Amino acid sequence: xxxxxxxxxxxxxxxxxxxxxxxxxxxxxxxxxxxxxxxxxxxxxxxxxxxxxxxxxxxxxxxxxxxxxxxxxxxxxxxxxxxxxxxxxxxxxxxxxxxxxxxxxxxxxxxxxxxxxxxxxxxxxxxxxxxxxxxxx
Length: 137
What we know:
mainly beta, Jelly Rolls, 2 helices, disordered N terminus
């Protein structure tokens, strides 16, 4: 049993396909996997210049999507995943006002458009993470 716990902890610390596989285990059975987004970023040069991995995705009206984020344990950075419609923040895994960190959120798409997915790390720490996009069946 202890060996399994150690193996699972080690697997989440990997910054490779293992991280994607393990993060996909968080997907609810009512959702189907669509895409993954990997981000490996260095330390921010300053608080004003926090590195961000940016991706674009076409989401379709009438669908419910779920975005999960998993951080590799062997990096100090805790991942933040944000969804934007143009320049408007639609949803985030981190609520700055309450300093609450969520590992996932669901989003009902009310218009077909190209949305942006941003992955960064809290306080600009170096990190490795994967974001998972899934859609409700």
